[in-house]
Amino acid sequence: METLVQGAVAEALRNGGDEAIRLYVAACAERMAPLFVGLRAGEPGREADLDFYAESVRDLWHADRPLADAAEGVRRLERFQELQPNEEGITGVADTYAFFAALCLRYAMLAHGSGSVDDAVSCGHTALTAMGMLDQNVPGARFLAEEQGLQSLLPSGDAWRLWDASVVAGRERFRTVVGRLPCQECS
């Protein structure tokens, strides 16, 4: 599979060790989190999923150590409806971006737990794919370029700057996606 993740970023992950991988995937998941949490908030029966998602993203920022129960967390996440096979496919705007957010978190948890560069690259690829799709659907949008720039912040190692930029970017993505929702998906 060809990946959208820049070669320099993948190389920095290979050379940076476990902590660099963990910061990278935490930032990717942070930027995608508002899409899952915001688009699924208020759905009956999803409160535990929302709490788990938010707690998992928070825990990813502990880059100095692997997640204690990453494998169990991945299994729990894989039971989310967004990651279940669907014969009809994903057609709605909210469902599409919630899927990408759940998939991004899945790869982030795998990479955080194992230190796998391949899982980290898959995490980044998922975020880039989602932002490329958003660019295609919003005239003048530059979310893909922004995501590429944010992913390249990794070599600096400035976790605070990375977290702050990721939170801001995630909010903007959420606002843009909500602006694309048909009225029946807004409620």
| Percent strand | under 5%
The chain-level structural class is mainly alpha
Q: Which residues sit in consecutive blocks of at least 5 with pLDDT less than 50?
A: none
Number of helices: 8
Distance, first to last CA: 37 Å
Q: Please give the largest β-sheet.
A: none
Gyration radius (Cα, Å) is 15 Å
Oligomer kind: single chain
The number of E-state strands comes to 0
Bulk shape = globular
Question: Topology, pairings included?
Answer:
Layout: H1 7-40, H2 47-60, H3 70-78, H4 93-114, H5 117-137, H6 143-151, H7 159-180, H8 183-186
Helix pairs in contact: 1-2, 1-4, 1-5, 1-7, 2-4, 3-4, 4-5, 5-6, 6-7
Task: Describe, in short, the structure shown.
This protein has 187 residues and is mostly helical. The chain is built from 8 helices and no strands.
Give structural notes.
This protein is mainly alpha-helical. It contains 8 helices and no strands. Helix 1 crosses helix 4 and helix 5 (117-137) runs antiparallel to helix 6 (143-151).
Properties at a glance:
72% helix; 187 residues; mainly alpha; 8 helices
